[in-house]
Design goal:
The chain is an alpha+beta fold and 129 residues long. The protein contains four helices and six strands, in the order αββββαββαα.
């Protein structure tokens, strides 16, 4: 999987997902202001950091060389996925899980506002923008 494919997939999860460039070479992906994925642009090996359940992350690190504790992040909750070393389907699954984990932990009021805002809104396709 390439950076652009991971980016497009993350943005396709919901019209409420935002992406922001920060620290010159990082892109954050957020739902209601909360990070679920980070992408470092200047790395020699393409990777994304995703927020996962600690037990799930630990299990994945035991089974895949391309999944490691995330650089510069809380190693219990964040995992780096090396895009060239992990099957595309698994990368997509983990991005989706990260998104859902963060969304599920939002306050009920925020979730209700997101659901109301997203009603009738088409999921965007960044390739068409």
């Amino acid at each position: 999987m390439k950076f652009d494919e991971a980016r497009i997939f993350a943005l396709s999860l919901s019209p409420s997902v935002t992406e922001d460039l920060f620290a010159e070479d990082w892109i954050s992906f957020r739902i209601a202001g909360k990070w679920f994925m980070l992408m470092q642009l200047d790395t020699p090996e393409p990777r994304v950091a995703v927020k996962l359940d600690p037990e799930r992350g630990s299990d994945l690190r035991d089974h895949y060389d391309g999944i490691r504790p995330a650089y510069h992040m809380n190693k219990q909750h964040w995992d780096d996925i090396y895009l060239n070393d992990v099957p595309t389907e698994l990368v997509q699954t983990l991005i989706r899980e990260a998104y859902q984990l963060v969304r599920n932990k939002l306050p009920q009021k925020v979730k209700a506002e997101l659901e109301e805002r997203e009603k009738g809104v088409e999921v965007r396709n960044p390739e068409l923008e």
